[in-house]
Amino acid sequence: MYAVSSPNSQYVVAKFGGTSVANFESMNNCADIILANANVRVVVLSASAGVTNLLVALATGCDSDKRENYLKQIRDIQYAIIDRLNDVAVVREEIDRLLENIEMLSEAASLATSDALTDELVSHGEVMSTLLFVELLHQRNTDAEWFDIRRIMRTNDNFGQAEPDSLQLHTLAMENLHARLNNTIVITQGFIGKEEKGRTTTLGRGGSDYTAALLGEALGLQRVDIWTDVPGIYTTDPRVVPAAKRVEKIAFDEAAEMATFGAKILHPATLLPAVRCGIPVFVGSSKDPKTGGTVVCDKTKNPPLFRALALRRKQTLLTLHSLKMLHARGFLAEVFTLLLRHNISVDLISTSEVSIALTLDTTGSTSTNGSLLTNALLTELATLCRVEVEEDMALVAIIGNELSQAKGLGKRVFGVLESFNIRMISCGASSHNICLLVPGKDAEQVIQTLHQSLFES
Ligand code: ASP
Ligand code: MG
């Protein structure tokens, strides 16, 4: 890690997500946003919405009918944008060449796929969206330059989840990108990079935010703007509580807590590069830039006791009972070793003299019902203890500041929840959250009740 003490440039990097560059109209909104702020000099784009998913599907290798269908969908998305531009012979040729490439790589993938091939294929989404966007800016008489991020984004070769080398990025960005910013707006790709041997890599799904934050850090920029389809971070999901309020400014720690507990809006780990060197990150909606958004920064003044409520559904509660636990040593170690062997990440824990209750973290899980419990795991656990399983629970997280120091919290939180069955409580480990496990069917009502009492009065 290199030390960048504070931003040294007045310039801003703006990132636009897939829905923001989904079609011609939304791309035009992005252009408006960029043109409204002369300091926006680096623009990071995702692939047009839907394209990455289609490319991922092609990369898994599919039969020719499916392949044709997916290719057509990608072509339709990109052509719908080209068709709205004027005089686009050159761009059309370039996009056609990329589409041909995609077809060729997809055929290869259906014979034998690999992680490297997948990344190569998937990277075409960002390459196409950036080419189209540069053309759109040119047609709006704006000076903009297409820049291949792979010239500077060096990563390891962990395809699909490659980790950038921020030291090299800093050096290369200063050499190849920094000076350009004085003369033009640079349009580049999020999500993709290049490993040592020159093969294309990707930084993990949703990786464009990470690209933007890394560039903010590498170039010492003033701010990172993340334009997405929601106007910032709210006290809770406005679909559950219409009275939810936008948080104007939030500390990185708090935003990270919110994301951990299921607030989908951004993944703060991806913002870490910006925040660790003191660059604020703005999050707003590209459809509605005038509404403003939320600023995520290192610290906020007078942080409130209660900041937000988050909800995570489909939680599984495991209760393990064993008399062996009584005054025993190593029982927890045995249980956790077993869980580790089954690749289970434990979320909440509470213990009593002869039992352990724990919930499983299903966030990275790809299983359709969100459950990580396998028969093999249950059988093995049963040799150690009696196991009870309760599915379809919901985790409600109350996120705030210095919660572990506050007086009267118990009454404020639990007083209003007297009509609910709270199955498990986790409190005290973090001064940033209190977690409650409730039956899934009660989750929304619990959130509504808590929101009203903690945020609306
Ligand atoms: N296009 C990539 C994805 O859909 C990266 C991104 O959008 O951030 O995951
Ligand atoms: Mg995205």
UniProtKB/TrEMBL annotation:
GO terms for biological process: homoserine biosynthetic process; lysine biosynthetic process via diaminopimelate; threonine biosynthetic process. ATP binds at K15, F16, G17, G18, T228, D229, Y234, R239. SUPFAM superfamilies: ACT-like, Carbamate kinase-like. Its EC number is 2.7.2.4. Keywords: Amino-acid biosynthesis, ATP-binding, Kinase, Lysine biosynthesis, Nucleotide-binding, Transferase. Substrate binds at T52, E126. The keyword RNA-binding does not apply. It catalyses: L-aspartate + ATP = 4-phospho-L-aspartate + ADP. It comes from the Bacteria. One of its GO terms (molecular function) is aspartate kinase activity. GO terms for cellular component: cytosol. The keyword Protein biosynthesis does not apply. Residues 11-284 form the Aspartate/glutamate/uridylate kinase domain. CDD domains: ACT_AKiii-LysC-EC_2 (cd04917). Pathway: Amino-acid biosynthesis; L-lysine biosynthesis via DAP pathway; (S)-tetrahydrodipicolinate from L-aspartate: step 1/4; Amino-acid biosynthesis; L-threonine biosynthesis; L-threonine from L-aspartate: step 1/5; Amino-acid biosynthesis; L-methionine biosynthesis via de novo pathway; L-homoserine from L-aspartate: step 1/3. Residues 396-453 form the Aspartokinase ACT domain. Pfam families: AA_kinase, ACT_9. Belongs to the aspartokinase family. This is Aspartokinase. It comes from Xenorhabdus japonica. The lineage of its organism: Bacteria, Pseudomonadati, Pseudomonadota, Gammaproteobacteria, Enterobacterales.
